[in-house]
UniProtKB/TrEMBL annotation:
<keyword id="KW-0808">Transferase</keyword>
<dbReference type="InterPro" id="IPR007835">
    <property type="entry name" value="MOFRL"/>
</dbReference>
<dbReference type="InterPro" id="IPR037035">
    <property type="entry name" value="GK-like_C_sf"/>
</dbReference>
<dbReference type="InterPro" id="IPR038614">
    <property type="entry name" value="GK_N_sf"/>
</dbReference>
<dbReference type="Pfam" id="PF05161">
    <property type="entry name" value="MOFRL"/>
</dbReference>
<protein>
    <submittedName>
        <fullName>Glycerate 2-kinase</fullName>
        <ecNumber>2.7.1.-</ecNumber>
    </submittedName>
</protein>
<feature type="domain" description="MOFRL-associated">
    <location>
        <begin position="28"/>
        <end position="269"/>
    </location>
</feature>
<dbReference type="GO" id="GO:0008887">
    <property type="term" value="F:glycerate kinase activity"/>
</dbReference>
<keyword id="KW-0418">Kinase</keyword>
<dbReference type="GO" id="GO:0005737">
    <property type="term" value="C:cytoplasm"/>
</dbReference>
<dbReference type="Pfam" id="PF13660">
    <property type="entry name" value="DUF4147"/>
</dbReference>
<dbReference type="InterPro" id="IPR039760">
    <property type="entry name" value="MOFRL_protein"/>
</dbReference>
<feature type="domain" description="MOFRL">
    <location>
        <begin position="352"/>
        <end position="458"/>
    </location>
</feature>
<dbReference type="InterPro" id="IPR025286">
    <property type="entry name" value="MOFRL_assoc_dom"/>
</dbReference>
Length: 465
C-alpha cells in the first residue's frame, strides 16, 4: 500500500511567523503534518476493506459474494477519488461499476483507473450545474437494484454541494442563493444541512431509498462536528431525524425568512403541511441493509497531533474535537486557556502543546476576504499581544479556508505590535471588515498549502515554550 493521497509536508506549513519562532515553529509544522497524514483518505479506506475467499469484509461486516451478483461503487466528496481508489485496489476484480464526483480537476487523471472508475466533477462550496449533471448521470447509469446487489458508497467533505439533485421546482440559483444567505448568517453546518436535506432528492436518506432493495455499506470521512452521520454530506444514506418545521425554524432563528427565494419557502411550507413527502426516517430501512461506517474523523487527526507532540517532548493535551461557535467567542475561550497555561502551567505543564479540533463560524458583516481559521487567528492577535513564547495556528484540514488560497494563519505575541507600529495597521478595521486574509498577508502569517487531499474540519494548535 503506497498510494497515500496527502499533498502536504511540513515545509508547506512554514511562513514568516512560524519560522521566527524557531523550534516552536518547526515542531508545530511536524505536529500538524502528522495530524493531516493520519486522516489520509486512501489509507483510512484501504485498511477497512478486505476480500478473502469470496467474502468482502468492511470493518466488522461480512458480505458473502455467493449471495451477491453485482457490486457497485459510488462516491462523492473532495476525497472521493482516493477513497474509491482504495476500494478498487482491494476489490477491483469483483466490482461491476464505479462512479464518483469530486471537485479538483486534477483527479480527472484517474478517470478510467483500472478500467473501472468514472470520475465526474461538481462545484464546491456552492453546488453548480456540474454538480447536478454529474449527480443525475450517476443516478441514470445505475440500474434498478435487486436484493442480490451490494453498493459501496464513499463519502467525504464537500459531498453536500457535489452530490445535488434538487426537488422539483427548486433551481440551482435558488440553492446557491440560500447557501450564501446561510453562510453569511453564521448558521452552523447542522442547521445548513437540515435545510439541504429537505430541498434535495438524494439527501436525507434519499440515496438509500434509490438504492433499495440492495445492501448498502457507506464509508465516511467526517467533516462535521461530532461526526453526526445524518449531517455529513447531508446524510444521503442515513435516516433523517429532522423535519420540514425544523428547516423553517433555522431560517426564522437567523431572521432570513424574508430573504430566501420564494420557491424554497413554498416547498418547505408544503412539506410542513404534509403536502410533499418527508425525508427517510429511522426504522424505515433495516440497519443491517444500510450500514454507515466512519473511517476518519477530526479526533483521529487530533490524536495523531497529540502523539507527535509528546514524541517531540511537549506536555500535550486535546481540549476538544468539537469546538464551535462564533470566532470571537472561540478566541476568548482559547485565550483564557493560554493565560492559564502561562500563569499556572495548566491544563498541562510547559513546554505545552494544546490541541483543539472543530469548526468555528464567522458572522460576516464586512466585504473583506477571509475564512473562519484566519478570522479566528485575527481575533486572537490582540488577546495574545506581548505573550512571548506563544505560537497559535488555526488550519483548515483540507487546505482551503473560505474562498481563498490560504489554509489558515499563524500568530504570535509580536504580531499585534508589528502590525500597529511598523505597518500602521488598525486591527479593528480588518476585524470589522472581515478582512483577515489581508491582515495576515501583511504580517507574513498566512499558511498556504494548497489542497491537502483530506477534509476533517479544522485543527488549532497552541504551543507555549
Amino acid at each position: 500500500m503506497s498510494q497515500e493521497n496527502i499533498f502536504l509536508n511540513k515545509n508547506n506549513l512554514m511562513n514568516k511567523v512560524v519560522a521566527r519562532n524557531g523550534k516552536l515553529g518547526f515542531d508545530a509544522c511536524e505536529i500538524l503534518s502528522a495530524a493531516i497524514h493520519a486522516v489520509d483518505p486512501y489509507t483510512c479506506t484501504f485498511k477497512r476493506v478486505h476480500l478473502q475467499n469470496r467474502k468482502i469484509f468492511i470493518d466488522q461486516n461480512v458480505f458473502d459474494l455467493n449471495q451477491f451478483k453485482r457490486v457497485f461503487l459510488i462516491g462523492f466528496g473532495k476525497a472521493a477519488v482516493p477513497m474509491a481508489r482504495a476500494v478498487i485496489d482491494k476489490l477491483g476484480s469483483v466490482l461491476f461499476q464505479s462512479m464518483v464526483i469530486t471537485k479538483d480537476p486534477k483527479f480527472m487523471a484517474e478517470n478510467g483507473l483500472k478500467n473501472k472508475l468514472r470520475v465526474y466533477l461538481g462545484g464546491h462550496p456552492l453546488p453548480s450545474n456540474d454538480s447536478i449533471n454529474s449527480t443525475q448521470l450517476i443516478l441514470h447509469n445505475l440500474p434498478e437494484m435487486t436484493k442480490e446487489d451490494l453498493v459501496i458508497v464513499v463519502i467525504s467533505g464537500g459531498g453536500s454541494a457535489l452530490f445535488t439533485n434538487p426537488v422539483r421546482g427548486i433551481t440551482l440559483d435558488d440553492l446557491q442563493a440560500l447557501n450564501r444567505i446561510l453562510l453569511k448568517s453564521g448558521a452552523d453546518i447542522e442547521e445548513i444541512n437540515t435545510l439541504r436535506k429537505h430541498l434535495d432528492q438524494v439527501k436525507g436518506g434519499g440515496l438509500a431509498v434509490r438504492l433499495q432493495p440492495a445492501s448498502v455499506a457507506t464509508l465516511i470521512l467526517s467533516d462535521v462536528i461530532g461526526d453526526r452521520l445524518d449531517v455529513i454530506a447531508s446524510g444521503p444514506t442515513v435516516p433523517d431525524p429532522t423535519n420540514y418545521q425544523d428547516a423553517i425554524d433555522v431560517l426564522d432563528r437567523y431572521a432570513v425568512l424574508d430573504q430566501v427565494p420564494r420557491a424554497i419557502l413554498s416547498h418547505l411550507e408544503k412539506g410542513r403541511d404534509g403536502l410533499v413527502p418527508e425525508t427517510l426516517k429511522p426504522g424505515q430501512i433495516p440497519t443491517k441493509k444500510n450500514l454507515n461506517i466512519l473511517v476518519g474523523t477530526n479526533f483521529h487527526a487530533a490524536e495523531a497531533a497529540l502523539e507527535k507532540a509528546k514524541a517531540l517532548g511537549y506536555y500535550a493535551t486535546i481540549i476538544t474535537s468539537a469546538l464551535t461557535g462564533l470566532t470571537e467567542h472561540v478566541a476568548s475561550f482559547i485565550a483564557g486557556i493560554a493565560y492559564t497555561a502561562l500563569a499556572y502551567n495548566q491544563p498541562v505543564s510547559r513546554p505545552a502543546c494544546i490541541i483543539f479540533g472543530g469548526e468555528p463560524t464567522v458572522n460576516v458583516t464586512g466585504d473583506g476576504l477571509g475564512g473562519r481559521n484566519m478570522d479566528l487567528a485575527l481575533k486572537l492577535v490582540p488577546r495574545l499581544a506581548e505573550k512571548h513564547g506563544v505560537l497559535f495556528i488555526s488550519f483548515a484540514s483540507d487546505g482551503e479556508d473560505g474562498p481563498t488560497d490560504a489554509a489558515g494563519a499563524a500568530i504570535d505575541g509580536f504580531v499585534f505590535r508589528e502590525g500597529m507600529e511598523e505597518l500602521g495597521l488598525d486591527i479593528n478595521d480588518y476585524i470589522n471588515n472581515n478582512d483577515s486574509y489581508h491582515y495576515h498577508e501583511s504580517l507574513g502569517g498566512l499558511i498556504k498549502t494548497g489542497a491537502t487531499g483530506t477534509n476533517v474540519n479544522d485543527l488549532m494548535l497552541l504551543l507555549i515554550n
